[in-house]
Amino acid sequence: MTLDTEWIQQQLQNIIQAPFTIVPWCPEMMAEGETADSVMPDRSFVSDNKLYFPFRASAGVLAAFAVEARYLTDRERKLIEALLGNMEQVWQNGPQLSITPAYSKEERMNRFGQWLIQQAANLNSEEEVPAELELCDSLSACMVPFLLNGEGTQDGAITYTQLHRLLASYFGGDVLLTPLDEQSWLILAKKELLLGSDDERDKDPESRDADFVEPLEEVLTAFSLGLYELIANEWVGVFHLAISKPSIPLQSLPNELNLLWETIHLGKIFHVTEHIHLSWELHLERLLNRIPKEQRELFLEQVMKSSVILEDSETMATLDIFFQLDCNVSETAKRLYVHRNTLIYRLDKIKQETGLDVRTFNDAVLIKLYLLLYKVTKRK
């Protein structure tokens, strides 16, 4: 049996914030009459301004962790002696020794959340998921990511256990719930829980036929609506929900998390009345948000002769519905509960004030761009 000495060394360095080295045992390290088998790793000693902590690397083989004595207080020294002594006792009394920390599920997911935030902030690190979290197998499955973000919600309004139980009940199976901060949670649900296990749906998302993409988006949208309503009944306060398409977390989760954060950010800017944000519906908003502010302001000044009418709430609501319904006059009138002629009068008024006829394709594109750029420029 051999201890994972490098892992122990790394943990000691993380705790003490000082460099430890592993040195082979020599006779000078033993008191008179002691042998390698009789020495217990519960004693430390100082030699040449260094502290040495002896331990058994394997049966009959001694070594020591060494660190500059100035880095440790007496209390820290005793704690390390106790730690290594306990490891020696377990090694003697049992055929196997596990030095992997035993975390509860909530502790593991909290640690995973902190690790994930660090990886999302530095996409070049490509660091593997820590083995002690025991999540690699779970993250190898194709899963659908959701990001739940509170806005002014009361701290502790819903606990990890409550939310995890609620999600497991809704999805009909276990999900990975990862706390990111006091107001944000990452939810990973196996694709099969949402889409079933049909062979066609088990294909790689990137290789799906085009005619299957739309049903997938419809299913994900429906699940998002249901999930939002479910949580709204439990969570006091305003919150936002973002969703992305299925992926394998072990390969792409830091990128997916950044996409979900961006999706919520764009949703709050461009669609202030909505709380469910779908990543695949914000391509145009994502592009416009990256245009420099000076260029956005120049476009707003040049595109129409007057924009006063677009600051009217009724006009804005009319145009939002008009674009949602693919510029269909009759359907827009029905949705707004107004006569068709009333809607035509409003559209004519917009043309008169702006010089753009929203019923023509080119002008509709300009006004749509104007509305989006106005939101991202004027509201910041």
UniProtKB/TrEMBL annotation:
Residues 316-372 form the PucR C-terminal helix-turn-helix domain. Signal peptide: none annotated. It holds the Pfam family HTH_30. Gene3D superfamilies: PucR C-terminal helix-turn-helix domain (1.10.10.2840). This is PucR family transcriptional regulator.
